[in-house]
Write a structure and sequence with these properties.
Elements (H helix, E strand, L loop, with lengths): L21 H23 L3 H4 L1 H33 L7 H26 L1
Length: 119
């Protein structure tokens, strides 16, 4: 079997030291979260005829958050796998706090749109 050549941009492979594959489960959870943000962005596009440009900005924000999650996913996976290997695992608290803030902001904007329509 031929191994894939690595370039200077590819980090060396990580030996899997976790029989439960915790980094893979966490990576898949971040992927599902990114997909949920993309679905929410697609759903908000239905509001454009009623609310105009404000919804387009919200949709753009949702897409940016989803892309940010996707972009950081490989780094978070690598950190988790190396953390398990070296018995020095740290939670990615900043990413979780940022995602919680974005989720609350999405909820507040959605409530605002619903309330202002009924007035």
């Amino acid at each position: 079997m031929t191994e894939r050549p690595t370039s200077w941009a590819d980090p060396p492979p990580i030996p899997v030291a976790d029989p439960g594959l915790q980094p893979e489960r966490t990576s898949m959870a971040w992927g599902r979260t990114s997909m949920a943000y993309l679905v929410a962005a697609a759903v908000t596009l239905r509001w454009v005829p009623y609310y105009g440009v404000a919804v387009v900005l919200v949709t753009g924000g949702l897409v940016l958050v989803a892309l940010g999650i996707y972009a950081g996913q490989r780094r978070r996976y690598r950190q988790a796998a190396l953390g398990i290997l070296n018995d020095r695992l740290r939670a990615s608290g900043g990413a979780v706090i940022a995602l919680a803030f974005c989720t609350v902001a999405l909820g507040l904007l959605s409530v605002y749109f619903v309330v202002t329509e009924s007035l």
